[in-house]
Structure formats: structure tokens, C-alpha cells
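Module 6 notes. Inverse folding takes a fixed backbone as the condition and produces residue identities as the prediction. Think of it as a translation problem where the source language is geometry and the target language is the twenty amino acids. Below is one complete input and output pair. Work through it position by position during the lab.
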């Protein structure tokens, strides 16, 4: 049920008008890796991208976006300790990874001159988008992880209370 909810949220977030690069996809990938330990859980963020790309349109860097989101899933999967700081660091690292890989893809497919100068230009012009995606990643990870942890704590607290029969 949680996987379906994440997929629906991810697809809707890409389909509705939003700020460029302001989406919960990195958060969904990281969250799926951390909390959903099913065998095929890595498909959750991938399905979000595939289905939403069918809606909004494919582009020539899908290999780089889909690959980076899978790598981010595995960052979450191998995250052992869920503290504020480990999740924060993994979020920032995931944002940087997505930025580096997708913009490398933009340069490789030829949107910029095929020289070092073109690579520098590609990354330089993408900085405003990185800022937006980093902010959205921090917000969405904070909300997704925070709400889920709060629900887990409330649920566990209810289970630990003794049941009074009289």
C-alpha cells in the first residue's frame, strides 16, 4: 500500500505544474530504499519516472535520470542508521549525485559543446536548478521521513500500552 501511495504521489507531482526541479522524486527514492525492504522495492522510484515520463514526455537523458534515481534508492537501502544527520547527509549527497549525473548526461547527449568548456558551461548554467532541487529534496525528505517516523512512533506507543480489562 505504501509503495502504491509513493508511486501515485510521485506521478502526480511530475504531472501537475510545479517549479522546475521541485519534486519529491529524490525523497521517494531515498525513502523507498530506507523503509521498503521488499525484493523489488527499487522499482518504486523507477516506476514513478517511467509512468510520469509517459505523461510529460520522454527526453534524451532518461538513462541518466533513471540511473541516478536508482543509485539514490540504493543509498537509502544501505543507510544503516536513521538519524537526522545521516538522513540529511544522504539527502544532500543524493541531490549532488542527481545534479552531477543528469547534467553530465545533458553534456554527453550534445546540448553543450563537446569540450571541457562545454561541460563547465553545462554545470554552471544548471546551478540555479540545483539550488531548487536541493531545497525541494530537503523539504520532501523532511516531510516524508518525519511523518513516517511520527506515525511509527505513535503506532509503537499504542502497541506498548497495556490493555485494561476492568
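Target side of the pair, the amino acids:
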Amino acid at each position: 500500500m505504501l509503495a502504491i501511495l509513493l508511486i501515485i504521489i510521485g506521478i502526480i507531482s511530475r504531472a501537475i505544474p510545479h517549479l522546475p526541479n521541485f519534486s519529491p522524486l529524490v525523497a521517494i527514492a531515498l525513502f523507498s530504499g530506507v523503509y521498503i525492504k521488499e525484493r523489488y522495492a527499487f522499482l518504486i522510484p523507477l516506476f514513478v519516472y517511467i509512468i510520469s515520463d509517459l505523461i510529460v514526455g520522454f527526453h534524451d537523458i532518461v538513462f541518466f535520470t533513471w540511473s541516478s534515481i536508482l543509485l539514490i534508492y540504493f543509498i537509502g537501502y544501505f543507510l544503516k542508521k536513521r538519524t537526522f544527520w545521516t538522513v540529511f547527509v544522504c539527502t544532500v549527497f543524493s541531490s549532488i549525485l542527481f545534479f552531477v549525473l543528469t547534467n553530465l548526461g545533458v553534456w554527453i547527449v550534445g546540448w553543450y559543446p563537446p569540450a571541457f568548456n562545454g561541460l563547465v558551461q553545462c554545470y554552471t548554467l544548471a546551478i540555479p536548478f540545483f539550488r531548487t532541487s536541493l531545497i525541494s529534496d530537503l523539504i520532501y525528505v523532511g516531510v516524508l521521513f518525519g511523518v513516517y517516523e511520527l506515525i511509527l512512533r505513535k503506532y509503537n506507543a499504542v502497541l506498548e500500552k497495556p490493555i485494561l480489562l476492568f
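Reference fact for the lab report: The two ends are 36 Å apart (CA to CA).
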